[in-house]
Design brief:
The protein has 8 helices and 2 strands, in the order ααααααββαα. The protein has 2 domains: 3-75, 434 Repressor (Amino-terminal Domain), CATH 1.10.260.40; 81-123. The protein is 69% helix and 4% strand. It has a two-stranded antiparallel sheet with strand order 1-2. The chain has 124 residues and is mainly alpha-helical. The model has no long low-confidence stretch (mean pLDDT 90).
């Protein structure tokens, strides 16, 4: 992991900690470590070892790829196995969309955007 990845990782840990209303001390307790180590992770001065990244990913229900900056998807992993519609999981929905041609993916996105706009108008 390079310095840039360490900074990305640290920023993401900090953002997830704040999003979950945890202090550095509370996260340190969950990870059985010192607050100063959490601070080093968040500032990018120290890169968490793989086993620690796995623990952090479990606490925040994200992938290690997200923490490392390999993926920008912060969708909770548990959400992927939830039922989306009619016994189809979110993971299966993603697989279907990825299996569509580029043209059909664009059409799918246009439909989703139209539905989202319609829902926003009705909820105002």
């Amino acid at each position: 992991m390079n310095i840039n990845q360490g900074n990305i990782c640290g920023k993401r840990i900090k953002a997830l900690r704040k999003k979950n209303n945890l202090t550095q001390c509370q996260l340190a307790e969950l990870l059985h470590m010192s607050r100063s180590t959490v601070l080093k992770y968040e500032t990018g001065r120290q890169i968490p070892p793989v086993d620690r990244i796995c623990d952090i990913a479990d606490i925040f229900d994200v992938s290690t790829d997200y923490l490392y900056g390999v993926s920008d998807c912060s969708l909770p992993l548990s959400k992927l196995n939830e039922i989306f519609y009619d016994d189809m999981t979110y993971s299966e929905l993603i697989s279907i969309v990825l299996g569509l041609s580029e043209e059909h993916q664009k059409a799918f996105m246009i439909i989703l955007e139209c539905l989202r706009k319609k829902q926003n108008r009705t909820s105002e």
